[in-house]
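Q: How would the structure tokens look for this protein?
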Amino acid sequence: MMEFVTPYIEKGGCDTALVMPNLQPPITQVSQVIAYHEALSRIAPKVKFLMTLYLHPTVTPDVIAEAAMSKIIYGVKLYPAGVTTNSQDGVLDIAQYYPVFEAMQTHDLVLNLHGETPDIEVLQAEAAFVPTLHRLHAAFPRLRIVLEHVSTAKGVEAVRQCGPTVAATITAHHLFMTTENAEDDAHNFCKPIAKTLEDRIALLRAAVDGSGKFFFGSDSAPHPVQSKEQTNVAAGCFTQGWTSVLVIDALKQAIENGWISNHKIRHETLEGFLSTYGRKFYKIDQLSGSLQWRIQLEKGAETIPKSIISSDGKIEVVPFRRGEQVMSLSWIDRS
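A: Here is the predicted structure in token form.
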């Protein structure tokens, strides 16, 4: 699967990717991260991979110090146990990791949160996590925290209430969907699940608010078609090959529906959401690769395929919004 889908990062208009660690087994050691980074870089040498560790009892303050020295590890992902794919080895007691968070604050690594509370009704799980976000921010005010794939108006507001060290990512699929879409099509099922229309509109408005506290994160999750078309449906939408154009299409729909104003969609706002806000938060060189290369979009020139199949025919993945006509994307060398 890695060999098959990694090239889609660049196809989707991305040259930088934060890599999640919820593999089997989970990525909990620096040596694992280094090997994973090398494998990804061989497949897509032009992509800058920002690696993460999976928060686990084996991740100690000493491991955090080692991770910081690696120069390829940018964050640690906190998965509450049981809330999403491969999170069974996740966190049961957040307070036990306070020494780790202190070390992360010292070494300036990012805490990436899957912000849902376990064992609660799924539509309320993110809202129930908000007090945890506030407690973490209060306890570690210098710790950079990202509420990943925020999916609710309450999550958006919680991030706004926090200081500049707290931000959130928004996915392309959450800009398009509500709960009904996920219930009607297994390929739209993801975690956190899409919520209400009110929540969707809040995400769309946050994406163009220009605050810098909200930036794009695909949370693209490729699953073999068999795992999406079974009783126990795998959670995740595969958007990676069309991420940039999907965001633009979602914003266009929002304008047509009167949810956001046309004047909100400026070049600086789009570039900020899709690129510069995230780079600034992660302290990545703003000019790294960004002066020479740009993406160019062409209206209505591509159709998202019904599925993509590996060259050996062994893997088939169904993309999000399959069959939809979208803009085509190409990379332009401006040197």
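The chain has a mean pLDDT of 94.

Residues 125-139 form the longest helix (15 residues).

Upvote if useful.
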